[in-house]
Design brief:
It contains 16 helices and two strands. By secondary structure, it is mainly alpha-helical. The chain folds into two domains: about 80 residues, no CATH class; about 290 residues, Na+/H+ antiporter like fold, CATH 1.20.1530.20. α8 crosses α9. The longest helix is centred in the C-terminal third of the chain and has 32 residues.
Amino acid sequence: MATASVRSKVLLFVSIVLAILFGVTTYLGRHDVAGWLLILFFLAIAFRFREHEILKGYSFTVMIFAAVSAAMYFPHYFIQVGDFKLSKLIVPLMQIIMFGMGTGLSLKDFARVVRMPKGVIAGVMCHYLIMPMVAFMITKIFRFPDEVAAGIILIGSCPNGLASNVMTYLARANLALSVTLTAISTFIAPFVTPFFMSLLAGQYVEIDFWAMVWDITKIVIIPVTAGLIFNFFLHGKFKWLDEVMPVLSMAGIALIIVVITSAGRDSLLVVGPMLILAVLMHNMSGYFLGYWSARALRMNEKDCRTIAIEVGLQNAGLGSSLALAMGKLATVGLAAAIFAPVMNITGSSLALWWRNKPLPEGNSYDTEEVVKHV
């Protein structure tokens, strides 16, 4: 315990020193050195957070900031290696991540539609109505370049994010409902996402409906289905996979964000601050409108929390992959690259706040589901 305390203090001291040095080198115009100092600062903070019981949930997000800093300061390292363009890794990485998602699902997760139809229908409807429409309104408020605006609508039209199950667990919400909503929204995405893109983003960029249907099918549906089949026939026989997949998924998401940020660095320098604000508004609106829509439907507190999280968190990796398929990674893909770290910060904060806020009687947490899915 004492060793952990000393390590924590050392990391805090190192973080402060790195922050000061970053400020000094930036002021002196030594941006090449400042970039490395900023990366090391975020890494030190991430390891410092891992020493804290409450803050350790933020360590991955802080590491994402380190990765994004690397992409912003040294983009040439993440665009291509030799003749190989790193953007070619995005789709295979997403397919691996989606396969991992499939291995964590079972047919019982889909059978819950019958057991809890109100929650499932309300969750899916709220997600696919609130987020695309809020995204569309945001594009009218901020007046971004057409392709950047289309990217905001794209992230709003994507299915639930993979992090939603973990956030739901942290918030003491309905994990069973969360898993089912993620599964259902993912499997209907091949038609719902292209529909909203054609309806709302068609004015900004040309949308090929059936091409997008196929892109989502090969990126999401085929790998998830393969994962489901793997889980059905080989459940428990490859325990090492349960340990490897979360780490591989996090590394894959980080690399996807870095590649997109590097490709769109010049555009980010122009629209970055306003785009961050727009994405934050989009994300927070999802939580707020999702929660109060569920309350309006007289759902219990645990389900309201679940739907709020499911609405607010999007599959940013899929948004990035679709932007790549459209040939517009550096513009349409920007909103997805920003949405991923933003939603991890806000989602973790909301979940931890709810965790410390007791549920009313009759909303007890299902620990058996936690053991099974988290």
